[in-house]
Amino acid sequence: MEEVQRHSVHTLVFRSLKRTHDFFVANQALLPEIDEKLEKMKYSIKARDSYKLVFERTAKAKNTIVKSGETGRIEVVAQPAQDSMLAITAESEMDYNHSNSQMSLVPAAAANSQNTSTNSLQVLPKKAPTIPKPKWHAPWKLYRVISGHLGWVRCVAVEPGNEWFATGAADRVIKVWDLASGKLKLSLTGHVSTVRGLCVSPRHPYLFSCGEDRQVKCWDLEYNKVIRHYHGHLSAVYTMALHPTIDVLVTAGRDSTARVWDMRTKVNVHTLTGHTNTVASVVCQAANPQIITGSHDSTVRLWDLAAGKSMASLTNHKKSVRSIVLHPSLYMFASASPDNIKQWRCPEGNFIQNLNGHNAIVNCMAVNPEGVLVSGGDNGTMFFWDWRTGYNFQRFQAAVQPGSMDSEAGIFSMTFDMSGSRLITTEADKTIKIYKEDDGASEESHPVNWRPEIIKRRKY
Questions:
Q1: Model pTM score
Q2: Dihedral, CA atoms, 318, 323, 329, 331, nearest 10 degrees?
Q3: CA distance 259 to 356
């Protein structure tokens, strides 16, 4: 059997190009001549399509062009006329399209003082879309590691006064730590399974906790005792959030529902149903939508608190959504999934942009007022992003506690303190880590290496 001769792809491509050229070269001489009348008509249609607004204004007036000898600027003086838009010829439209001079339709009171009814419009050149350059952020570094829990540390919450923070862990204990020194102030016991969520009320001396034991507890921090239980969840409760202005608590978990509780009367006001899998994250805000949930069914839902109904369901994610975070000042939020971190704009949930690169199960996120978004992965990776542009300015692997296995490098929750200058993370190596910005860094030592791939669709 004769052996087939092999050629490179380069040779085959150029051989194909040459054959195509030889095949069609005879047809080049048969092209019809360009009809000038049709060509003018085509440009006329294009000009009217692009500058319809200008033509409508000028159709109501007779155009008298006055050229100023001093500045060389062309001004169009508007005077009453009976001409219609159809009277504008194709030639004048072509001249208008291809003119390189700056034309401005301005009131011509100086050129014609008797004309009082001037209808004017300034025509400005359209700017090309520009990609915003990311703001420079200082890199973050680890400055404190706190040990004390005997199991995976699953959740963290900072007190509104910024004096202490609380953590909950798989050892069923809630621990309260001094933020300045990192020393243990208090241990609260009462849960019979892993503590998965914590919230501190900004208006009352209350700490709320939830866990895998299906319990939701309200702790009075003046007596350090449980004063209320919220019963209703059918399975583990994974996340919780407090409404910023109303005395309402929202909890969600493995029973695929989010429940809205009256903080004082313990009444289950609403049961938000619609998700088909575990609800892993919930956030509350004062403006609509007041409640946003992310679920393992790969959807994000926006809820109307007054009606207790879903306003929208965002199905852009392809994998489970484990974290949602609200921006502290912009009317936006972000959702995290192993496929992408996505930014959205409230209230309809309009998609803004993707943050690509964190190829891990993203368990948690946090954002500070400076626009630093942090995402923490199940493999211990941390990515720092510029919120506005989606630029990833820092990434690193969190160091595990000596004696721990490499598999215990997961980051389960994170939050900034009230000033936004300290980042607290809770991890699978049973430690709490606190990060701060590197004071010695500058734009020269850590330059912005910004290479945008494409022009992103933005709706700020």
A1: 0.72
A2: 40
A3: 32
